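Continuing the batch. This is chain 6 of the set; chains 1 through 5 are on the previous pages. Same settings as before, nothing changed between runs. Recording input and output for traceability.
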Amino acid sequence: MPDSSDRFKFDAVIYSSEINHRHGVGVLLQRIFPDTSRILSIRAENWYGGEHTFGQVALHINHRGLTRAQGLAKVAEALSNHQIERILCIPYQVDEVLTALALQELFGAPICTYLMDDQNILVKSIPDNLMAELLSKSRLCLAISVEMCDVYKAKYAVDLHFTPPVLPFALADLQTNSQSSTVEIPSDLLQRGVMIGNVWCPTWLKSLQTITKKTGITIDWYGNTGAEWNIGDRLQLLADGITEKGFLPTEAEVIVALKKYLYAIVPSGTLDLDDGNPATAWLSLPSRIPFLLATANIPIIVVGNKNTTAARFVESMGIGIAAEYKIESLMLAVKQITQPSYQQKFRQQAALLTPLFIDHNTDEWIWQSLASGHPIDQRFQEILDLQCQISYLDALTQALDTIGSQRKEIDTLRNALTLAEQARLQDQKNFEEIMELYRNQISINTFNSKFKYLIKKILGKLKKIYKN
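Output for chain 6:
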């Protein structure tokens, strides 16, 4: 190898396949890294016809049929003219793990491992010994869901930090979101739902089709990228109430389309023996959910088991409803979510949450956190704290419901809290001002103080009720 001073210096991003707009990981990585001039990407597979739009340099390396020593030599040869300074590994197969470990051995570069899909707990694509080695040699470990953090920490005794999907500020119209919680829906779309992106399991799609066929519920589907089970019989999809709308040229046009609907459908898993993809359902947070939340404030119905990550997130954050793959369950969810009171509640909550999912130099946050060995700030912890607070408030609401009193008052208090947060955001003119205000003046500590005051009032009312 030439002297390191003669090599081109890069940060390596390692994923299994092409990074493009046709799958969630590709979309998320492109959002996190808008500037890829220092990125050298490495993939093992071509699952999308070689369509790769990420990085200054793109290498194709797999380790099939090779020993560890042979794989190391292969990586060394491919990187002979490059110096790797930092490594981001998104493991999906063994190849990504071996490549990341080889790069660390060759260049001494620190590794950040970002788990977006489970390939070791329920799916055994990556053996325990390799996953353990990767996590133990990673200076920073991130995971896309709380559930993923908890499960991998329990198994491997390493700290993983919740890092959800984010989206660019330009896609979130904060002024519009904060000013209004109502939308004007064309009359022909009042009962139609909308779906975006892939459905990652054939049984999920077939189960949804069975219900839409029997109930008359109709769905417009944007962005089906053509996974084998998503292609099927398009005429049958249409007959079953699901209309494929294809790809829109830009995300901005997708957002315009989303704002015409009262609700979005997100298919998920059943977490039973018939579930064809329980790992994704149980442990991954679909990137489309923060996208739907922050760009259109659209209420969401997650179809599947209520214990999936998607369903738990939507319900605990107060932005939608979970329904089963049963006729009565989905029909009830559609009936509820299209009512004005639910529309207002879910859209207001989504507007409040939007700033938490806006990308604020997440690329630098990852690299600086990697250098420190831990997150440099608690921006994503705020989401977890807020999630706990909303869940607690909902539990109190249910308690009040069971004794048949004061529901109107608690709803009023909750709406007042949401509107107060929106009012603070509404006065801001641009992204920097919003972020500065949100981080400093509307920090989670401020929210906590408001929340405690609110809870104190509610508990006081409960005490009076019990006395009576």
